[in-house]
Amino acid sequence: MILRLFTLFLVAFLAGCATAPKNPYAPEKHSYSAAETSRTIDLTHPPRDMWDRVRRGFAIPNLHTDLVDYWTNYYASHPESVQIMSMRASKYLYYIVNQLNERGLPTELALLPFVESAYDPTALSRSKASGLWQFIPSTGRHYDLEQDWWRDERRDPIASTQAALDYLSYLYDFQGDWYLALASYNWGEGAVRRAMEKNALAGKPTGYLFLDMPDETRNYVPKLQAIKNIIADPARYGVALPEVDNTPYFAQIRKQQDMDVAIAAKLAEMPLDEFKALNASYNLPVMLASRGAPLLLPADRVDIFNANLAAYKGDLSSWEAYQSKKGESYAAIAKRYGISVKTLRSLNGLSKKQHRAVAQTLLVPRSAKGRIMLASLEQPSDGKPGKGDIRVLRRSPNIRVHTVKRGDTLFSLAKRYNTSVTELRRLNNLKGNTLALGKKLRIPGTGIRG
């Protein structure tokens, strides 16, 4: 029964399972108890790193339940999964914690994306929830997150964080209880209110611990508490958290010209997947200056980006926006730009039933390079860079060699060299995470962090 219920969850993590209650999704309600957070923090010294800052801001009462024990044991038995999520989180933690501190909100909320999206800004659920904070389209629009052909701000770390904290603040002000606020964030404030009203009519307590909730929501707060337990004392659970400096990871750059995503990554001398992790809100392979949205770069890449941009002599964009005329044939537009109607429709999200344009803006290739990139986009992805990926640029990335030493891991090397585990695996044809002492690893030339 347990294996069947957790199949989808286990696929996303490593194999194995911690000891679980007989039915972790429906524990005895009387097994719940809430206790105030109790900890000793040395406030006479500044925080050592971001994890220390997070711990210092814990303010939500701890939850002690069978489900919390189950999920704590589960995450502790999958330390690599926690490390992967923590590596992703390292890009965003400084910004998110700063925003929480400015608003006077508990820093447990900085751990919520662990539960919502595994700190993956491109995460998309079956209910179409997207981004670090998993906004569904309607809630995203309610909190002014732009969602159109060009961009989806649910995947923007700055815009989505502001919206999420606005929403969580509202829910807490409305409920007066963080457990209920978090349940409302997951299930919906209306659903939680109806569950409370149902209990009130039946003469039952209306607190979080007594509500009849769906399985996902019943496990939601326990998962957050489990992550909190591990972050609070990683050594106790055998988890090695990556180093995350108490300094800004990214900076905003205002674009003066249209720019291809691949070219921007190249100018910053960083892997394309790392660039996209910070700029996941862009739906298309080009970022238009006229939209006014900034691009995000690691703070230590800004000077490199600006210097390379000043020296770059080629076209910054392989694409352009075409303003179609009402009634203009899509076939004629596609022919003019040397692409198929199918490609034009795919690139612009057009229905097969549409044959003629309304007065609308269409993305089309500006040059032969754009057509090459389109051809690549039409091929099934095997995870390897193709002609339309970052390699379309003339200058190949600078590669260095690292000799594996005792204590080296893919996670520590990715952090040290400001790259990703995925990129290290790709460059070195690695399937797993084991590194042999003395092995020579190819490292992308993106510079060493701290």
CATH architecture of the largest domain: Orthogonal Bundle
The CATH first-level class of the largest domain comes to Mainly Alpha
Largest sheet, in brief, is: 2 strands, antiparallel
Roughly what is the average pLDDT, rounded to an integer?
Answer: 83
Domain LysM: 320-364, 400-443
Protein name: LysM peptidoglycan-binding domain-containing protein
Keywords: Signal
Signal peptide: 1-20
3D architecture notes:
The structure is a single chain. This protein is mainly alpha-helical and 450 residues long. The protein folds into 4 domains: 2-237, Lysozyme; 250-311, no CATH class; 319-386, Roll (Membrane-bound Lytic Murein Transglycosylase D, Chain A); 399-444, Membrane-bound Lytic Murein Transglycosylase D, Chain A. Helices cover 41% and strands 8% of the residues. The protein has 20 helices and 10 strands. The strands form 5 sheets. It has a two-stranded antiparallel ribbon. Helix 6 (93-103) packs parallel to helix 9 (157-175), helix 10 crosses helix 11 (189-201) and helix 19 (410-416) packs across helix 20 (421-428).
Short structural description:
By secondary structure, the chain is mainly alpha-helical. It contains 20 helices and ten strands.
Which tags fit this structure?
450 residues; mainly alpha; 4 domains; two-stranded antiparallel ribbon; 8% strand; disordered N terminus; LysM; signal; Transglyc_AS; LysM_dom_sf; LysM peptidoglycan-binding domain-containing protein
